[in-house]
Amino acid sequence: MTDQHPTPALTAEPHRHPNPAGVRRVAVLTSGGDAPGMNAAIRAVVRTATSEGIEVVGVRRGFSGLHRGELQILGPRDVANTIQRGGTILLTARSHTWRTPEGRARGAQHLRDRQVDGLIVIGGDGSFHGAHYLQQEHGIPVIGVPGTIDNDLYGTDHTIGYFTAVETALDAVDKLRDTGASHERIFVIEVMGRHAGHIALDVAVAGGAEEVFIPEDAKDVSCVVDVVKESVAKGKTGSIIIVAEGYPGGAQGVADAIEAGTGMETRVSILGHIQRGGSPVSSDRVLASRLGEAAVYALMEGRSDVMVGRQNHTITFIPLSDTWEKRKDVNRDLYRCAKTLSI
Ligand code: F6P
């Protein structure tokens, strides 16, 4: 389902969005793994809503906080100086209580007590599951905003936090290349991404890696031996191999195969949670601002149970269930390109 908000004329006049749903108060929370740009999304929700005369309630600690009633009013000044900050000012959690109908019923009651007309959930597909059940069981309108470094959500070209995570990982790869080349060592670098290889693929191309292993391609790890032997024969000093954490055996498995097959000195670097931190890059801030605004408009238009995404620079609305039932593929052209350029 693709939809584009009408482009208002270029004017300094404030834009008033139609509000057929009669929304007067919305709640917003962040859930699951934090991602750089979540604060920019919260800010966009608060400021869009406020400029439409709608009050915003911030929920602390995601769905865990919602079931405990950790709600607070957020005004435009509460989100000042946050657009450049990593993490999430609302805090986040992976909630177990929310997986029970009782936990969700308590959360729904807190929203009803505060006369909340709709909930905006910034997170990944696990968080969208939680939002979906809230809508199904209690009729509370919900909108998902894709916030995860993994970029693994169907229905949006990119997720908030992805661009920054790639930059952070790339910075580490560049540094590891310096030391790797100096020692003529092989570096096997593991990046995050859960079950998806999006981060790995971008980092491999941008970092000039010799080889990349992603969960989407089940190629045998032993192929790395030939790759390394060939790069030595070509006179390369040191090699960079990128491995997505979801590839079976991870970076250690790849490094073990290299050492067993070549006897060459190999080092493993698992970048880990550093990829989730830091100030969001401009692409994440812009995406978050745009999606946060669109989420408020979506509630005002009477939409629910959808994720706002951006595809080809256009705002789209995807049923929440599609985000976990359909799989977003990696960019196959990029995968080929990584191989072509590693000669
Ligand atoms: O979904 C974001 C992510 O950072 C994944 O890349 C990673 O697999 C996971 O979260 C780590 O989760 P946790 O912070 O709970 O260890």
Automatic annotation (TrEMBL):
Pfam families: PFK
Pathway in which the depicted protein is active: Carbohydrate degradation; glycolysis; D-glyceraldehyde 3-phosphate and glycerone phosphate from D-glucose: step 3/4
Amino-acid positions noted as binding ATP in the UniProt annotation, renumbered to this chain: 33, 94-95, 124-127
Residues that hold Mg(2+) according to the record: 125
Locations listed in the record: Cytoplasm
Cofactor: Mg(2+)
Residue ranges occupied by any Phosphofructokinase domain in the UniProt entry: 25-298
Active site (record annotation): 150 (proton acceptor)
Regulation of its activity: Allosterically activated by ADP and other diphosphonucleosides, and allosterically inhibited by phosphoenolpyruvate.
Main location (coarse class): cytoplasm
EC number assigned by the record: 2.7.1.11
Binding site for ADP: 43-47, 177, 208-210, 234, 236-238
Residues holding substrate: 148-150, 185, 192-194, 245, 267, 273-276
Residues covered by region (Disordered): 1-21
Annotated catalysed reactions: beta-D-fructose 6-phosphate + ATP = beta-D-fructose 1,6-bisphosphate + ADP + H(+)
Family annotation (PANTHER family): ATP-DEPENDENT 6-PHOSPHOFRUCTOKINASE, PHOSPHOFRUCTOKINASE
HAMAP family associated with the record: Phosphofructokinase_I_B1 (MF_00339)
Assembly and oligomerization: Homotetramer.
Family of the protein in this entry: Belongs to the phosphofructokinase type A (PFKA) family. ATP-dependent PFK group I subfamily. Prokaryotic clade 'B1' sub-subfamily.
Function: Catalyzes the phosphorylation of D-fructose 6-phosphate to fructose 1,6-bisphosphate by ATP, the first committing step of glycolysis.
Protein name: ATP-dependent 6-phosphofructokinase
